[in-house]
Amino acid sequence: MTAQETPAPAPVPLPDSAADVAALEAQEARLVLPRFTHDDAWALGKLLVSLARERSGPVVIDIRRGAQQMFHCALPGASADNDAWADRKRRTVERFGVSSLLTGTRFRSRGRNFDTDARLDPADYAAHGGSFPIAVEGAGVIGSVTVSGLPQLEDHALIVEALERFRG
């Protein structure tokens, strides 16, 4: 290796243990919201845009309540492929009622592969980090917030950071 070359960063291992499942479940329980209005969707979306811009993140951000898209933004560098990934991750949240990362982690913790063992079309569903349920006290999961464009653990972490700030 020459002085100008830098080694590629080692890949970050995906969570795959029962302890990882428990930690992600606790994270979701902690991030239940007291309410979620149109104004809340706008505020959360703007917060995600601000955080992504701070990191120069080429992301798509999508927030939905039920079937209604309440916020959508594509930042510079994002592409239609990110929209497709966001849709696949969001469908996973809608189907399983938990984050796309938790869904994939549950499969990995049992030694299974979501793409082959879920018996769902991988063209429509992705258990990759980056979509998180919007849960409201007394109502349960009412929607989702999705980020696509960064490595999957960073997509997930960006949403968690925004929800933590949003909750105050």
What's this entry about, in short?
With 168 residues, this protein is an alpha+beta fold. It has helices spanning 18-30, 38-54, 80-96, 100-109, 114-117, 152-167; strands at 60-65, 68-74, 131-136, 140-148.
Q: What would your notes on this structure say?
A:
This protein has 168 residues and is an alpha+beta fold. The protein has a single domain, classed as Beta-Lactamase. Helices cover 46% and strands 17% of the residues. It contains six helices and four strands, in the order ααββαααββα. It has helices at residues 18-30, 38-54, 80-96, 100-109, 114-117, 152-167, and strands at 60-65, 68-74, 131-136, 140-148. A four-stranded antiparallel sheet has the order 2-1-4-3. A hairpin with a 3-residue loop joins β3 and β4 (140-148). α1 runs antiparallel to α4 (100-109) and α2 (38-54) crosses α6. The termini are far apart. The relative contact order is 0.20.
